[in-house]
Specification:
EC 5.1.3.14, 391 residues, 6-stranded parallel beta sheet, single chain, 7-stranded parallel beta sheet, Rossmann fold, globular, 2 domains, alpha/beta
Length: 391
Amino acid sequence: MSPIKVMTVFGTRPEAIKMAPVVIELGKYPELITPVVAVTAQHREMLDQVLHLFRIQPHYDLDIMSQGQTLFDITCRAMHGLNEVLMRERPDIVLVHGDTTTTFAGALAAFYHQTAVGHVEAGLRTHHKYSPFPEEMNRKLTGALTDLHFAPTATARDNLLGEGVGADAIFVTGNTVIDALMATVNKEYRFADGALAGIGEGGRRVILVTTHRRENLGEPMRQVYQALRDIVARYDDVEIVFPVHKNPLVRQVVSAELGGIERVILIDPLDYQPFANLIARSHIVLTDSGGIQEEAPSLGKPVLVLRDTTERPEAIAAGTVKLIGTDRERVYAETERLLTDSAEYHRMATACNPYGDGKAAGRIVETILWRYGLLNSPPQQFGCPAPTTEK
Protein backbone atom coordinates (compact mmCIF):
# COMPACT_ATOMS: atom_id res chain seq x y z
CA MET A 1 0.00 0.00 0.00
CA SER A 2 1.26 3.49 -0.88
CA PRO A 3 2.01 5.90 1.96
CA ILE A 4 -0.76 8.34 2.85
CA LYS A 5 -0.02 12.02 2.36
CA VAL A 6 -0.75 14.07 5.47
CA MET A 7 -0.57 17.85 5.18
CA THR A 8 -0.33 20.03 8.27
CA VAL A 9 -1.39 23.68 8.04
CA PHE A 10 -0.65 26.34 10.65
CA GLY A 11 0.26 30.01 10.79
CA THR A 12 0.73 31.38 14.31
CA ARG A 13 3.07 30.66 17.19
CA PRO A 14 0.44 28.87 19.36
CA GLU A 15 -0.51 26.63 16.44
CA ALA A 16 3.13 25.90 15.65
CA ILE A 17 3.90 24.96 19.25
CA LYS A 18 0.99 22.55 19.37
CA MET A 19 1.47 21.14 15.89
CA ALA A 20 5.24 20.67 16.18
CA PRO A 21 4.91 17.38 18.11
CA VAL A 22 2.48 16.13 15.43
CA VAL A 23 4.86 17.09 12.60
CA ILE A 24 7.71 15.33 14.39
CA GLU A 25 5.57 12.24 15.02
CA LEU A 26 4.45 12.07 11.39
CA GLY A 27 8.10 11.91 10.38
CA LYS A 28 8.59 8.70 12.37
CA TYR A 29 6.63 6.66 9.80
CA PRO A 30 8.45 7.24 6.47
CA GLU A 31 7.13 4.01 4.95
CA LEU A 32 3.52 4.78 5.86
CA ILE A 33 3.25 8.57 5.76
CA THR A 34 4.41 11.30 3.39
CA PRO A 35 4.23 14.48 5.48
CA VAL A 36 3.75 17.93 3.94
CA VAL A 37 4.05 21.09 6.05
CA ALA A 38 2.40 24.30 4.87
CA VAL A 39 2.54 27.49 6.93
CA THR A 40 0.62 30.66 6.21
CA ALA A 41 2.85 32.81 8.46
CA GLN A 42 -0.20 34.67 9.71
CA HIS A 43 2.24 35.74 12.44
CA ARG A 44 5.68 35.87 10.82
CA GLU A 45 8.33 36.45 13.47
CA MET A 46 6.74 34.48 16.30
CA LEU A 47 6.06 31.55 13.98
CA ASP A 48 9.68 31.46 12.84
CA GLN A 49 10.87 31.21 16.44
CA VAL A 50 9.00 27.94 16.92
CA LEU A 51 9.98 26.49 13.55
CA HIS A 52 13.62 27.09 14.48
CA LEU A 53 13.25 25.62 17.98
CA PHE A 54 11.68 22.38 16.76
CA ARG A 55 13.81 22.23 13.57
CA ILE A 56 10.80 22.21 11.25
CA GLN A 57 11.39 23.21 7.63
CA PRO A 58 8.06 23.89 5.87
CA HIS A 59 7.55 22.61 2.37
CA TYR A 60 5.38 25.67 1.66
CA ASP A 61 5.54 29.11 3.28
CA LEU A 62 2.77 31.43 2.11
CA ASP A 63 4.19 34.41 4.04
CA ILE A 64 0.83 36.19 4.11
CA MET A 65 1.44 38.57 7.02
CA SER A 66 1.12 42.27 6.21
CA GLN A 67 1.17 45.47 8.24
CA GLY A 68 -2.24 46.26 9.72
CA GLN A 69 -3.76 43.05 8.38
CA THR A 70 -7.44 42.39 9.03
CA LEU A 71 -9.33 39.14 9.44
CA PHE A 72 -10.52 39.59 5.86
CA ASP A 73 -6.93 39.93 4.64
CA ILE A 74 -5.74 36.82 6.49
CA THR A 75 -8.65 34.70 5.31
CA CYS A 76 -8.40 35.67 1.65
CA ARG A 77 -4.62 35.37 1.39
CA ALA A 78 -4.58 32.04 3.21
CA MET A 79 -7.34 30.62 1.03
CA HIS A 80 -5.65 31.72 -2.18
CA GLY A 81 -2.26 30.32 -1.20
CA LEU A 82 -3.62 27.03 0.15
CA ASN A 83 -5.65 26.48 -2.99
CA GLU A 84 -2.44 26.33 -5.02
CA VAL A 85 -0.73 24.03 -2.50
CA LEU A 86 -3.68 21.65 -2.42
CA MET A 87 -3.86 21.49 -6.20
CA ARG A 88 -0.17 20.58 -6.34
CA GLU A 89 0.04 18.12 -3.42
CA ARG A 90 -3.42 16.49 -3.37
CA PRO A 91 -3.05 15.18 0.21
CA ASP A 92 -5.21 12.44 1.67
CA ILE A 93 -5.93 14.51 4.77
CA VAL A 94 -5.25 18.06 5.96
CA LEU A 95 -4.57 18.65 9.65
CA VAL A 96 -5.41 22.03 11.15
CA HIS A 97 -5.15 23.13 14.73
CA GLY A 98 -7.34 24.97 17.18
CA ASP A 99 -9.06 28.26 16.49
CA THR A 100 -7.09 30.72 14.36
CA THR A 101 -8.15 32.27 11.08
CA THR A 102 -5.54 30.04 9.39
CA THR A 103 -7.31 27.05 10.95
CA PHE A 104 -10.68 27.95 9.45
CA ALA A 105 -9.17 28.90 6.10
CA GLY A 106 -7.24 25.63 5.95
CA ALA A 107 -10.33 23.57 6.70
CA LEU A 108 -12.42 25.47 4.17
CA ALA A 109 -9.77 25.17 1.46
CA ALA A 110 -9.53 21.42 2.07
CA PHE A 111 -13.31 21.13 1.90
CA TYR A 112 -13.39 22.93 -1.44
CA HIS A 113 -10.94 20.29 -2.70
CA GLN A 114 -13.06 17.51 -1.17
CA THR A 115 -10.11 16.55 1.01
CA ALA A 116 -10.54 15.06 4.48
CA VAL A 117 -9.91 17.38 7.43
CA GLY A 118 -8.44 16.42 10.80
CA HIS A 119 -8.94 18.99 13.56
CA VAL A 120 -6.33 18.91 16.32
CA GLU A 121 -7.65 20.41 19.58
CA ALA A 122 -11.25 20.00 18.45
CA GLY A 123 -14.37 20.63 20.48
CA LEU A 124 -13.40 23.59 22.66
CA ARG A 125 -16.38 25.88 23.22
CA THR A 126 -17.44 28.91 25.26
CA HIS A 127 -20.88 28.92 23.59
CA HIS A 128 -20.55 32.70 23.17
CA LYS A 129 -20.33 33.77 19.53
CA TYR A 130 -18.07 36.78 20.13
CA SER A 131 -16.10 35.58 23.15
CA PRO A 132 -13.35 34.99 22.33
CA PHE A 133 -13.55 36.69 18.93
CA PRO A 134 -13.01 35.37 16.31
CA GLU A 135 -11.76 32.14 17.84
CA GLU A 136 -15.08 30.71 19.01
CA MET A 137 -16.62 30.75 15.54
CA ASN A 138 -13.36 29.59 13.95
CA ARG A 139 -13.64 26.49 16.12
CA LYS A 140 -17.27 25.84 15.32
CA LEU A 141 -16.95 26.47 11.59
CA THR A 142 -13.86 24.29 11.39
CA GLY A 143 -15.69 21.58 13.30
CA ALA A 144 -18.49 21.59 10.73
CA LEU A 145 -15.91 20.80 8.02
CA THR A 146 -13.94 18.19 9.97
CA ASP A 147 -13.84 14.43 9.38
CA LEU A 148 -11.56 13.38 12.27
CA HIS A 149 -11.95 15.34 15.50
CA PHE A 150 -8.95 15.05 17.83
CA ALA A 151 -10.49 16.27 21.08
CA PRO A 152 -8.01 17.04 23.86
CA THR A 153 -10.42 16.14 26.68
CA ALA A 154 -13.65 14.30 27.42
CA THR A 155 -15.42 17.64 27.82
CA ALA A 156 -14.39 18.66 24.30
CA ARG A 157 -15.64 15.29 23.05
CA ASP A 158 -18.98 15.85 24.78
CA ASN A 159 -19.30 19.29 23.15
CA LEU A 160 -18.91 17.67 19.75
CA LEU A 161 -21.37 14.90 20.53
CA GLY A 162 -23.85 17.57 21.60
CA GLU A 163 -23.47 19.22 18.20
CA GLY A 164 -24.31 15.99 16.39
CA VAL A 165 -20.81 14.74 15.55
CA GLY A 166 -20.70 10.96 15.40
CA ALA A 167 -18.83 9.21 18.20
CA ASP A 168 -16.77 7.24 15.69
CA ALA A 169 -15.28 10.48 14.33
CA ILE A 170 -14.04 11.74 17.73
CA PHE A 171 -10.83 10.64 19.45
CA VAL A 172 -9.73 11.94 22.86
CA THR A 173 -5.97 12.43 22.64
CA GLY A 174 -4.88 14.89 25.31
CA ASN A 175 -3.42 18.20 24.21
CA THR A 176 -0.22 18.33 22.17
CA VAL A 177 0.87 21.46 24.04
CA ILE A 178 1.83 19.20 26.93
CA ASP A 179 4.00 17.16 24.55
CA ALA A 180 5.77 20.35 23.46
CA LEU A 181 6.14 21.66 26.99
CA MET A 182 7.69 18.48 28.36
CA ALA A 183 10.24 18.53 25.58
CA THR A 184 11.19 22.17 26.23
CA VAL A 185 11.44 22.86 29.99
CA ASN A 186 14.89 22.34 31.48
CA LYS A 187 15.94 23.04 35.08
CA GLU A 188 19.37 24.10 33.85
CA TYR A 189 18.02 26.58 31.29
CA ARG A 190 19.64 30.02 31.33
CA PHE A 191 17.81 33.07 30.01
CA ALA A 192 19.58 35.05 27.32
CA ASP A 193 17.60 38.19 28.20
CA GLY A 194 19.53 39.99 30.92
CA ALA A 195 16.33 41.32 32.43
CA LEU A 196 15.42 37.77 33.42
CA ALA A 197 18.79 36.66 34.72
CA GLY A 198 18.02 37.39 38.36
CA ILE A 199 14.31 36.66 38.59
CA GLY A 200 13.26 34.95 41.79
CA GLU A 201 16.50 35.73 43.59
CA GLY A 202 16.32 36.40 47.29
CA GLY A 203 13.09 34.43 47.61
CA ARG A 204 11.08 36.81 45.45
CA ARG A 205 7.87 35.33 44.07
CA VAL A 206 7.40 35.82 40.34
CA ILE A 207 4.00 36.63 38.89
CA LEU A 208 3.94 36.00 35.15
CA VAL A 209 1.43 38.11 33.22
CA THR A 210 0.24 37.96 29.62
CA THR A 211 -2.66 39.85 28.01
CA HIS A 212 -3.66 40.20 24.37
CA ARG A 213 -7.36 39.37 23.84
CA ARG A 214 -9.33 41.79 21.68
CA GLU A 215 -12.22 41.82 24.13
CA ASN A 216 -9.87 43.03 26.89
CA LEU A 217 -8.39 45.97 24.99
CA GLY A 218 -8.78 49.36 26.64
CA GLU A 219 -10.40 49.72 30.05
CA PRO A 220 -10.42 45.99 31.00
CA MET A 221 -6.65 45.84 30.55
CA ARG A 222 -6.23 49.11 32.41
CA GLN A 223 -8.10 47.63 35.38
CA VAL A 224 -5.83 44.56 35.39
CA TYR A 225 -2.65 46.61 35.25
CA GLN A 226 -3.81 48.87 38.09
CA ALA A 227 -4.41 45.78 40.22
CA LEU A 228 -0.89 44.55 39.45
CA ARG A 229 0.50 47.92 40.46
CA ASP A 230 -1.36 47.59 43.76
CA ILE A 231 0.07 44.11 44.34
CA VAL A 232 3.72 45.08 43.94
CA ALA A 233 3.14 48.11 46.15
CA ARG A 234 1.70 45.87 48.88
CA TYR A 235 4.12 42.90 48.68
CA ASP A 236 7.80 43.72 48.52
CA ASP A 237 8.75 40.07 47.89
CA VAL A 238 6.78 39.98 44.62
CA GLU A 239 8.03 40.82 41.16
CA ILE A 240 6.01 40.82 37.96
CA VAL A 241 7.38 39.64 34.63
CA PHE A 242 5.26 40.81 31.72
CA PRO A 243 6.14 39.86 28.12
CA VAL A 244 4.16 42.62 26.43
CA HIS A 245 2.24 41.78 23.26
CA LYS A 246 3.33 43.80 20.22
CA ASN A 247 -0.16 45.13 19.57
CA PRO A 248 0.29 48.91 20.00
CA LEU A 249 -3.10 49.15 21.71
CA VAL A 250 -1.80 46.79 24.41
CA ARG A 251 1.56 48.52 24.71
CA GLN A 252 0.03 51.95 25.11
CA VAL A 253 -1.94 50.94 28.21
CA VAL A 254 0.91 48.88 29.67
CA SER A 255 3.28 51.81 29.37
CA ALA A 256 0.82 54.20 30.98
CA GLU A 257 -0.01 51.96 33.93
CA LEU A 258 3.13 49.90 34.58
CA GLY A 259 6.01 51.75 32.97
CA GLY A 260 8.78 52.59 35.44
CA ILE A 261 7.24 50.68 38.34
CA GLU A 262 9.79 48.98 40.60
CA ARG A 263 9.79 45.17 40.39
CA VAL A 264 7.68 45.18 37.22
CA ILE A 265 9.78 43.78 34.39
CA LEU A 266 8.35 44.66 30.97
CA ILE A 267 9.93 42.71 28.15
CA ASP A 268 9.21 41.90 24.53
CA PRO A 269 7.37 38.65 23.74
CA LEU A 270 9.62 35.67 24.29
CA ASP A 271 10.45 32.74 22.07
CA TYR A 272 8.69 29.58 23.14
CA GLN A 273 11.69 27.99 24.86
CA PRO A 274 12.43 30.86 27.27
CA PHE A 275 8.72 31.41 27.80
CA ALA A 276 8.11 27.78 28.77
CA ASN A 277 11.01 27.96 31.20
CA LEU A 278 9.72 31.27 32.56
CA ILE A 279 6.40 29.57 33.39
CA ALA A 280 8.37 26.88 35.22
CA ARG A 281 10.06 29.50 37.42
CA SER A 282 6.95 31.53 38.17
CA HIS A 283 4.86 31.36 41.31
CA ILE A 284 1.50 32.44 39.84
CA VAL A 285 0.33 33.07 36.28
CA LEU A 286 -2.21 35.75 35.32
CA THR A 287 -3.31 35.50 31.69
CA ASP A 288 -6.10 35.86 29.15
CA SER A 289 -4.41 33.26 26.93
CA GLY A 290 -6.04 29.93 26.22
CA GLY A 291 -2.93 27.79 25.85
CA ILE A 292 -1.31 28.88 29.11
CA GLN A 293 -4.37 27.55 30.95
CA GLU A 294 -3.17 24.12 29.80
CA GLU A 295 0.58 24.57 30.09
CA ALA A 296 1.07 26.13 33.51
CA PRO A 297 -0.84 23.46 35.50
CA SER A 298 1.47 20.82 34.03
CA LEU A 299 4.26 22.63 35.87
CA GLY A 300 2.27 23.06 39.10
CA LYS A 301 1.54 26.77 38.61
CA PRO A 302 -1.89 28.18 39.60
CA VAL A 303 -3.49 30.22 36.83
CA LEU A 304 -5.84 33.19 37.25
CA VAL A 305 -7.69 33.75 33.96
CA LEU A 306 -8.35 37.38 33.07
CA ARG A 307 -11.53 36.62 31.15
CA ASP A 308 -15.24 36.24 31.77
CA THR A 309 -15.53 33.03 29.76
CA THR A 310 -13.26 30.12 28.92
CA GLU A 311 -13.39 27.36 26.36
CA ARG A 312 -11.40 25.22 28.79
CA PRO A 313 -13.91 24.39 31.56
CA GLU A 314 -12.03 21.21 32.47
CA ALA A 315 -9.38 23.34 34.18
CA ILE A 316 -12.05 25.15 36.20
CA ALA A 317 -13.56 21.84 37.28
CA ALA A 318 -10.15 20.35 38.11
CA GLY A 319 -9.19 23.42 40.12
CA THR A 320 -5.98 24.19 38.23
CA VAL A 321 -7.27 27.59 37.06
CA LYS A 322 -9.75 30.19 38.26
CA LEU A 323 -11.78 32.53 36.06
CA ILE A 324 -11.57 36.03 37.59
CA GLY A 325 -12.39 38.58 34.86
CA THR A 326 -10.69 41.97 34.70
CA ASP A 327 -12.17 44.05 37.53
CA ARG A 328 -9.38 45.76 39.48
CA GLU A 329 -10.60 44.76 42.93
CA ARG A 330 -11.28 41.16 41.94
CA VAL A 331 -7.90 40.73 40.27
CA TYR A 332 -6.17 42.15 43.34
CA ALA A 333 -8.16 40.00 45.78
CA GLU A 334 -7.64 36.72 43.92
CA THR A 335 -3.93 37.36 43.44
CA GLU A 336 -3.51 38.31 47.08
CA ARG A 337 -5.29 35.13 48.14
CA LEU A 338 -2.75 32.96 46.35
CA LEU A 339 0.07 35.00 47.86
CA THR A 340 -1.22 34.64 51.42
CA ASP A 341 -3.28 31.43 51.60
CA SER A 342 -0.84 28.52 51.36
CA ALA A 343 -3.62 25.91 51.48
CA GLU A 344 -5.39 27.47 48.50
CA TYR A 345 -2.13 27.77 46.61
CA HIS A 346 -1.29 24.12 47.28
CA ARG A 347 -4.76 23.00 46.22
CA MET A 348 -4.43 24.68 42.82
CA ALA A 349 -0.78 23.77 42.31
CA THR A 350 -1.27 20.05 42.92
CA ALA A 351 -4.62 19.48 41.17
CA CYS A 352 -4.59 16.95 38.33
CA ASN A 353 -4.04 18.61 34.97
CA PRO A 354 -6.83 17.34 32.69
CA TYR A 355 -5.10 18.35 29.48
CA GLY A 356 -2.55 15.72 28.71
CA ASP A 357 0.30 13.35 29.52
CA GLY A 358 2.78 14.17 26.76
CA LYS A 359 1.58 11.42 24.39
CA ALA A 360 -1.10 13.26 22.41
CA ALA A 361 0.81 13.47 19.11
CA GLY A 362 1.40 9.74 19.13
CA ARG A 363 -2.31 9.09 19.62
CA ILE A 364 -3.21 11.45 16.76
CA VAL A 365 -0.84 9.87 14.26
CA GLU A 366 -1.74 6.32 15.27
CA THR A 367 -5.44 7.16 14.91
CA ILE A 368 -4.85 8.43 11.37
CA LEU A 369 -2.88 5.31 10.48
CA TRP A 370 -5.65 3.14 11.87
CA ARG A 371 -8.38 5.00 9.99
CA TYR A 372 -6.47 4.54 6.74
CA GLY A 373 -5.98 0.84 7.37
CA LEU A 374 -2.27 1.01 8.21
CA LEU A 375 -2.65 -0.09 11.84
CA ASN A 376 -4.83 -2.91 13.13
CA SER A 377 -6.30 -1.05 16.09
CA PRO A 378 -6.64 2.52 17.37
CA PRO A 379 -4.59 3.79 20.32
CA GLN A 380 -6.09 3.97 23.80
CA GLN A 381 -7.76 7.34 24.29
CA PHE A 382 -6.57 9.82 26.91
CA GLY A 383 -8.21 10.33 30.27
CA CYS A 384 -7.05 12.12 33.40
CA PRO A 385 -6.47 9.45 36.04
CA ALA A 386 -9.15 9.31 38.70
CA PRO A 387 -7.97 10.63 42.05
CA THR A 388 -6.87 7.98 44.52
CA THR A 389 -7.60 7.91 48.23
CA GLU A 390 -4.74 6.97 50.47
CA LYS A 391 -5.52 4.69 53.38
